[in-house]
Write a structure and sequence with these properties.
Blueprint: H1 5-17, E1 26-30, E2 36-42, E3 46-53, E4 58-65, E5 68-73, H2 80-95
Antiparallel strand pairs: 1-2, 2-3, 3-4, 4-5
Helix pairs in contact: 1-2
Length: about 100
C-alpha cells in the first residue's frame, strides 16, 4: 500500500535535510489544515516554501534568493517519484553556493 502523499513529502524532506551538506538549512513543518503540509526553509542565502496538498497531490515550491524569486515547481505530482525529484531539486538549489 502506498504511503499518503503528505507523509511521503514530509519523510523525504526530513531525509534530505539530515544529509551532512544541509546542516545550514533550518526548516519548520506545519499542518495548517487537514490535508495540507507547509515547509518553511531558511539558509544563509535563501528562503523557500513548500506547500503540499493531499487531495490533489500538488507540490508548490517557491525559492526567494536575494532579489530573485523563482518558482521551482508547482502543480500535481504524477507519483511519489515526481515529488522526490522536485524535493531533490530544491535541496540542490538551496545547498548550492550562489557564488560558484
Amino acid at each position: 500500500m502506498e504511503m499518503p502523499f503528505l507523509s511521503h513529502v514530509e519523510e523525504r524532506w526530513n531525509a534530505l535535510r539530515l544529509q551532512a551538506r544541509c546542516t545550514t538549512a533550518r526548516s519548520t513543518l506545519s499542518r495548517p489544515q487537514p490535508g495540507q503540509l507547509r515547509i518553511a526553509i531558511e539558509t544563509h542565502e535563501a528562503r523557500a516554501s513548500v506547500t503540499a496538498h493531499e487531495a490533489l497531490r500538488t507540490l508548490d515550491i517557491v525559492v526567494h534568493r536575494f532579489k530573485d524569486d523563482r518558482t521551482l515547481a508547482e502543480g500535481p505530482c504524477a507519483s511519489n517519484a515526481d515529488a522526490d525529484r522536485r524535493l531533490q531539486r530544491l535541496y540542490i538549489d538551496l545547498t548550492a553556493s550562489p557564488f560558484a
